[in-house]
Amino acid sequence: MAYVPQTFFDALAVRTWCGLALRALGRAREEIDAINVYPVADGDTGTNLYLTAESAVAAVEAVFEAHDAHGQGKPALADAARAMAHGALIGARGNSGTILAQLLRGMAQVLAGDGGTTHTDGAGLGLALRYAADSARQAVAHPVEGTVLTVASAAAEAAGAAEGDCGTVARAAYDGARAALAATPGQLAVLERAGVVDAGGCGLVAVLGALVETFTGEAPRAVPVTSGATREVPTGSAASPASPEECADAQAAAGPAFEVIYLLEADDTAVARLRSRLDALGDSLVVVGGDGLWNVHVHVDDAGAAVEAGVEAGRPYRIRITHFGLGDVHTTGAERPPRERAQRAVVAVVPGAGLAGLYAEAGATTVLARPGEPPASGELVEAVRRAHAREVVLLPNDADLRHTAAAAAEQARTEGIRVALIPTRSAVQGIAALAVHEPERRFDEDVVQMTSAAGATRYAEVTVAERQSWTMAGICQAGDVLGLIDGDVAVIGSDVTVTAEAVLDRMLSAGGELVTLVLGDEAPESVADHLEARVRESYLAVDTVVYRGGRQGALLLIGVE
């Protein structure tokens, strides 16, 4: 695709810049991944930046397509800038992607300041870069020099000192960022030991190089990658400037086990409290956004607590919890190289935040399914990639996701990942499968044992009817309490506890050794105690375990093994 150099920063320039930035990050992705040693040597900074930019591009393109479809011509600068920022916010991945999203949001707040303006000049671009750098620094709980924040500040300072058109200011910002990037090894010992520059800063330099190309038509070529040399990012060289062993050796000996990311609908006051809560739980805290929508990123040992903090603040969704597997973080190079794939991982779709934390603490990579919004196959493929393993067991935990999960498994297999799909129909079947998972076993044996455990678990749910409907148990009315066993309505009632007891009795009439109860946020507080007492008094040698599922759609999930 050919790009025509832009004179002013207008909507078309936003579109051009986003497209060029995505292309630059795509070419540099593997190289940036390879030098990723801070804050965690998990080899995904380039990928996270690319995915964040990809989401921004999609949002901007949607605005142009909407205007074109309605014969409105080119959108206003404010519309394009806001779309860029919103797309990056909702698609931000990882620490670096989250910071990039805030940089773009900061720029958009300046560019869209006067909604009627069609374009801005070099001075306006400099102001936007200054505000972007400042807002990104404010979003990070504990800013560290020698990172992308340092590179962004240097770009803003250089841009502010430049006089001229957008091309001149963009070039000054790029040169300032490039010089700051080259100096990052002297500011962070972990970079100096690994012999590399900061990966996030390297990505930002690529993005600013795309800004230069937007206004001049010329792409800057050389970007310093190692501390003593330069490499040409656009060539997409696959050579690693530092070996995985060197990168790993630069890591601390211990640190948080999970990366937790979610979008959050909440007001400013609640987010301020959330920042304090999460800051006490872990590190690498970045909270970006505003106007009621936020992207939260943190590294913690207690993933469930991080998610619950979000629930207390507002409505978290698109929750992604990644377990820093053995060998990819917080170990020495002599033990496990950071980019070596784990032998086996479990990827599971879960219906609530509480279960997401439970699964993650058991070592699974999770995908949150919001009520009425099942994940697409692409989300499952991305989760399989995040698991970073040679072998993956996929648990869809929903009968309606069977085909989606099968498509995702097939796609992952084309990428060289061995994937086994266990057709779990409920999260309680997934819990049973995960309970017998043993990574040390042969893959086929592990899959057989997990499949057997899931298949031996009968499942049920208690929910509320949304409308009048014919069911296997008769006609239900909107507001009736429904008890579904193995996917079919078996009980219709008016009281949650009474209906749940009837469902449980039917399930245990065929026998059972373990009852699993997963409570949704809207379930009565007393229902778990009542059912536990019922099992204890009426069924000998049957144990009960209770979990909190959060906002999981159903009032109650029941499993009987």
What does this entry show, briefly?
The chain has 561 residues and is an alpha+beta fold.
List the helices and strands and how they pair.
Layout: E1 9-10, H1 11-34, H2 45-69, H3 77-91, H4 94-111, E2 119-120, H5 122-139, H6 148-161, H7 166-183, H8 189-194, H9 199-216, E3 222-224, E4 230-232, H10 244-249, E5 258-265, H11 268-281, E6 282-290, E7 293-300, H12 303-313, E8 315-323, E9 342-350, H13 353-361, E10 365-368, H14 377-387, E11 389-395, H15 402-414, E12 418-421, H16 427-435, H17 443-455, E13 458-464, E14 469-471, E15 474-476, E16 481-485, E17 488-493, H18 496-508, E18 514-520, H19 527-538, E19 543-550, E20 556-560
Parallel strand pairs: 9-10, 9-11, 11-12, 18-19
Antiparallel strand pairs: 1-2, 3-4, 5-7, 5-8, 6-7, 13-16, 13-20, 14-15, 16-17, 18-20
Helix pairs in contact: 1-2, 1-3, 1-9, 2-3, 2-4, 3-4, 4-5, 5-6, 5-7, 6-7, 6-9, 7-9, 11-12, 12-13, 14-15, 16-17, 18-19
Overview of this structure, please?
- Helices cover 48% and strands 20% of the residues.
- The chain is an alpha+beta fold.
- It is elongated, with a radius of gyration of 26 Å.
